[in-house]
Write a structure and sequence with these properties.
heterodimer, A: 147 residues, alpha+beta, five-stranded antiparallel sheet, 3 helices, B: 141 residues, alpha/beta, Transcription Regulator spoIIAA, 5 helices
Chain lengths: 147, 141
């Protein structure tokens, strides 16, 4: 298994760098993931990092890093995003109206976690007393772990 | 393990040089968001280039608010030059749509890139925002 770990300040300007590192790690170490799935992974990781950065900023922990860890093995690519923003309950999210409901346009946010659930093959939230780790896994081409 | 902190390599082992080279080759101004404003058949066209995420969305949101407040109520957002779009960027687009419609106008999107269309399709917002395949199609619909 290969591991690539990145610590970034809790600032949005660093999200591009996170995507570059994920792209480079996958392209170098898991090239059979496929372009479309790599795009999905980068979007899901961006959503997780955005939430982590927001959590740090809301707890005035902007000087503490957000840690992004990529683990690549023969079957999967897993990215963990760990923050120290105090934690949250991923099951307590507002339900968005259907896209065709005019009320839907009142909601300009709240898509991040639903997106992660759709884009990743596996999604796990690990809560600690001082923060959250989001673990996103995508399967490499031809691999369904455990089968 | 490759560890990066504030763009400085703290320590590089095994796969580090390969990954570092790939990063350097991709770092460019394309990561920033650029918005070019033009007009077509009475519509204000905002062509976006680069990445639209939580870092760049606030500025775009303000730019679009300003356009609408200055009388540009018919807006076309050309997303063909976007390299990346996330949910925060989507929120800025929704905000602009609401403002345009509140002022009696509309906002239409031009998007053929599958990676960008996928976000609208996953969120089912392609039902709220028809995605046109060209500027001509968007202004003549």
């Amino acid at each position: 298994m290969a591991v690539v770990e990145l610590e970034i300040p809790a600032r949005p300007a660093y999200l591009s760098l996170v995507r570059l590192v994920v792209d480079a790690a996958v392209s170098s170490l898991a090239p059979n993931l496929g372009g479309a799935r790599l795009d999905d992974l980068k979007l899901a990781v961006t959503e997780a990092c955005s939430n982590a950065i927001e959590a740090h900023q809301s707890r005035v922990r902007v000087h503490e890093p957000v840690v992004v860890r990529c683990e690549l093995d023969d079957q999967t690519v897993t990215v963990e995003v760990a923050d120290r923003g105090g934690g949250f309950d991923p099951t307590h999210l507002a339900t968005l109206p259907a896209a065709t409901d005019p009320q839907r346009l009142r909601h300009e946010s709240g898509l991040g976690i639903p997106l992660m659930r759709t884009l990743a093959d596996e999604l796990v939230f690990e809560q600690a007393s001082d923060g959250t780790t989001v673990r996103l896994t995508v399967y490499r081409a031809g691999s369904v772990p455990g089968s | 393990m490759l560890r990066l902190w504030n763009f400085t390599f703290v320590g590089i082992l095994d796969h580090g040089p390969t990954i570092a080279a790939a990063i350097r080759s991709n770092v460019s101004d394309a990561m920033q968001l650029r918005a070019d404003v033009s007009s077509l058949d009475g519509w204000t066209v905002v062509s976006l280039f680069g990445e639209l995420d939580v870092a760049s969305a606030p500025n775009l949101r303000e730019q679009l608010i300003q356009l609408v407040s200055q009388g540009s109520h018919l807006l076309v957002l050309d997303l063909e030059g976007l390299d990346f779009l996330d949910s925060t960027g989507l929120g800025a687009i929704i905000s602009a749509l609401k403002r345009a419609r509140t002022n009696g106008g509309d906002l239409r999107l031009v998007c053929t890139q599958s990676r960008i269309r996928r976000l609208f399709e996953i969120t089912a917002l392609d039902k709220a925002f028809p995605l046109f395949t060209s500027l001509d199609a968007a202004v003549r619909a």
